[in-house]
Amino acid sequence: MKKIFIYSFIALLLVSCSKENDFLYREKPHRPTLPYPEYQALAERVIQVRQFDHLLRESGGVDILWVIDNSGSMQSYQNDVIRHTDKFMNEFTSAGRIDWRMGLISSDESEEPYLGFAQYNNRFFDYTDPNPVATFQDAVNQLGTNGSYTEKFFGPSLKWMSSDQFVRPDAFLAIIMISDEPEQTDGLSAQTYFNELVNMKGGKSDLIKVYTAIAAKKGLQPPCSEGVIDDYVGSRWEEIKDLSGALAFSACSADFGSEMANVAQSIIAQLKAARILIPDQPKVETIKVTFQGEVVPGGMKELGGKWYFDEKFNEIVFYEIMGTNDVDETVQVSYVIEDGLFLPEGFDMETSQNVQVLGKNDDENTFEGKVFN
């Protein structure tokens, strides 16, 4: 009898195996069977749907902080920045409506900001500037090369970003550091520095990139004959670049302008991961995004998805902007507000009965009902 029972159990296991995938699986749970009156009450309940338009370009913007070494050996590198400022700026102007803000500080911790901090420079430097190329070039030209020979980037950048309203809560933060010396802030490792930046951005590490243009004798191509950085590999510069997932390039590059343009393009690409904060807990499977009348698919980018839902921050996150420079990137969002109950069979937000449509700022009503576990 025991053998028969064992054989029967093994047979059941084999039947439960997927022939295609060759592993045990569990079927999706069925909806609970309810007495008709209770089921009918659930099926006829009022289901709330949130529906609103959202302009993706309104999501955040970008704050760009330049930290440029102004010690005695930096004149040629500063000249490269000045010479190719237009290539960097043109990427932003050609990309359309980007709400950018920029600031400039030096590696000398005793100096105040040179540009973009309202408290010290009387105004922010942003997309409203009538001649941004000339404004930035003038500021870099004022850096000079009489700064401290103890070049510090991590400490001063945290200091100035924390002391003014330069960093906006929902904006992407890009920091660009240019030097021919090691980073020398006392007691502040690359990991600690990055953690401080993440705290500044409310825990959202994906809103931060730290780009580096470094003159090193090896580790970046082309190598530099000048400077005291023997190897970029293993340096604080490489660590912060890796922690933030940003680009790095050699400050000795013969194509410095193209490298600056690549950094600008990388920043713009990050902006295109626009976010929409959802005011409710949605039934995730019901989220629907449309653009110009067409449904925008969600899911993994590799499988053709254009957006995904970030449950941690309750946001719809787009991999890229939907429109072009000449078209408003306005999308329509709709979803069923979570009420703890299954949706009726065949439910459709647009055609089903007993649907209450709420706008973006309408208050959500609460309904009592049985919650299925």
Structural account:
With 373 residues, the protein is α/β, with parallel strands linked by helices. The protein is 28% helix and 19% strand. The chain has helices at residues 2-16, 36-43, 75-83, 85-94, 118-121, 132-143, 154-163, 190-200, 236-244, 256-271, and strands spanning 47-55, 62-68, 100-106, 125-126, 172-179, 208-214, 248-250, 275-277, 288-291, 294-295, 307-310, 315-318, 330-336, 355-358. The strands form 3 sheets. A 6-stranded mixed beta sheet has the order 4-3-2-5-6-7, sandwiched between helices. It has a 5-stranded mixed beta sheet with strand order 10-9-13-1-14, with no helix packed on it. Strand 9 and strand 10 form a beta hairpin. The longest helix has 16 residues, at 256-271. Residues 2-31 and 364-373 have low confidence and may be disordered.
CATH superfamily of the largest domain: von Willebrand factor, type A domain
Give average pLDDT, whole number.
83
Q: Bin the helical content.
A: 25-40%
Proportion of beta-strand residues: 15-25%
Broad structural category: alpha/beta
Give the CATH level 1 class of the largest domain.
Answer: Alpha Beta
Largest sheet: 6 strands, mixed
Overall, the morphology is: elongated
CATH topology of the largest domain: Rossmann fold
- Written as H for each helix and E for each strand, in order along the chain, the element string is HHEEHHEHEHHEHEHEHEEEEEEE
List the domain count as a whole number: 2
User: Can you list the strand order of the major beta sheet?
Assistant: 4-3-2-5-6-7
Low-confidence stretches: 2-31, 364-373
- Count of extended strands: 14
Distance between the termini: 38 Å
Number of helices: 10
